[in-house]
Amino acid sequence: MRLTAQEVYDKLVNEDGILQLEGQIKFYLGDVNIIVKQRDVVGNIMQEWLQGWLDKRGIEYAPSENTQMPPDFFLNPDDKTKNLLEVKAFNRNRGPGFDIADFRMYEEEIINKPYMLNVDYLIFGYDMNDDGVVTIKDVWLKKVWEITRRMEDWPINLQIKDNVVHKIRPGIWYAEDTARTDYTVFESLEDFISAIEEAVFQNPKTHNNAGTWKAAFLRSYKQETGIDLSIPRWSEIKDKYDLKSVRKLEKAKSDLAKATDQYEKIKERIQLYHQKLHVEQEKNNVGKVGKIQDDIEKQKKNAEKAKEKINKAQAKIDELEG
Amino acid sequence: MRLTAQEVYDKLVNEDGILQLEGQIKFYLGDVNIIVKQRDVVGNIMQEWLQGWLDKRGIEYAPSENTQMPPDFFLNPDDKTKNLLEVKAFNRNRGPGFDIADFRMYEEEIINKPYMLNVDYLIFGYDMNDDGVVTIKDVWLKKVWEITRRMEDWPINLQIKDNVVHKIRPGIWYAEDTARTDYTVFESLEDFISAIEEAVFQNPKTHNNAGTWKAAFLRSYKQETGIDLSIPRWSEIKDKYDLKSVRKLEKAKSDLAKATDQYEKIKERIQLYHQKLHVEQEKNNVGKVGKIQDDIEKQKKNAEKAKEKINKAQAKIDELEG
């Protein structure tokens, strides 16, 4: 039986009800066996479990030819450019801890084999409770750009050791609580390619290929798909993925509104004081006149401070929106 | 049933034949199960397996009260100062990768509870083959000083991160091939204590306790055991644990022997040349006389070089033996 990645997903979730199953890991030695309560182990064995499941269900596949690179399974053994399936798993109570691929191998691979961009990522979010009972909390089927993101200093989230670029790492695509993530995953293949190209340029080890990387990729992609991709410049899109910028802008706008409100109130107050001053001057009440004049001076200083806040917030907004 | 650590060892090895058993780790989810082929997992589960085994055999124990510190099992639940058992496991195809204890907790613990020095370490050396079959290659029952050693810059093998002392780490006690280890494990409790005391002094975080550490330990040890321990100074014992020094000394002695032999041969040769020179001078054979004189000059230079080697080797020996 041959299935697409989507059909594999549907069968797992809808027919086999994987989200309702309870699993466990057991260690046997002699006549003693114990339940293994090591959460990180599950992340490393779901791919083998899926292989066992494909076998048991009689679903055809050819296994991976290079364990370093996607995919884990060719769901169409006769055409290894279509229906490619990569399996990932992570502890759902933590963030995704898996690697996508080695950056240099990946940026070369997608020029040589643009169909690699179409790999389906079948991702399991698992849980292990204190008794060692394993459950699958979530299953996703995603494209690579739907699970990757930028980082602060690089256009793609990279594992960097001693200043050397290693693996492409995932973002968080399921965040209910966006306040906890600083960068959103990419919105499109084009934006993902833009980020990869910028990273090829930025990485000293690939910098010399950057001049022709985009042209080579676009030519290869068109040859394979017939499609002329239009890749945006990274500088034009990078800010929309930075929730920190978005949040900073929101904060600056809120600061501006607050400071403006404050400024208006102080101005009203000063006007009111002037009226009172007028009344007391008419009465020739020297003591009160002096006190009100002091109050007016104080409020004028407050107005200056509020004006400064307004200018500062406006400058921040101009900077962030510019 | 109550057993000593030695009886536990004997039952495991002789009665239950643990060295002949074949184990495996399996993951179950739904109607699919797979063999888990992750070697490092075994190291983390042998302690739980032993607990299962103690339960199954009806061997009494009280479990660990602090998982950070030895022991894992109190084999006499009525007296938690005797018959303490700590379980360790490591991949026999690699070196021991487990921790002994946090250094600071340990140096304090053995003052407060000197009986901790008497903990029995039950150590499993396991193997997992490519099919995931787990076998136990070796089981040892050891005292702490029989599985610890010095290192280059510290009297005890320590895990040091960012210049901060963390865990005490094991040595290799089973080395058939001593050429691969630079330091041997300690020969006695006394030498181990000497090393701990020196490390207390050397570690900036414990340095201020070093002045009274030994006195406090000896007092506490005597109070508990009635024994006056005699602790050697670290400077007096450290070299015997350094196989590198031992090997350097052997090399220097061998260099000395070789150079001396060479020097003697050159001197004989020079004597021979002088005899030949005498013969040719008698014959008035000017050509040959000149040639032999050149040869003698050459051999004198060689003799000087050999003499230099002798002096160098002797200096090295004096330095290493001094």
UniProtKB/TrEMBL annotation, chains A, B:
GO molecular function: type II site-specific deoxyribonuclease activity
Superkingdom, natural source: Bacteria
Region: Disordered, residue numbers: 299-322
Pfam families per UniProt: RE_NgoBV
Keywords of this entry: Endonuclease, Hydrolase, Nuclease
Family matches, as InterPro entries: Restrct_endonuc_II_NlaIV (IPR019064)
Protein name: NgoBV restriction endonuclease
Organism in which the protein naturally occurs: Eubacterium ramulus ATCC 29099
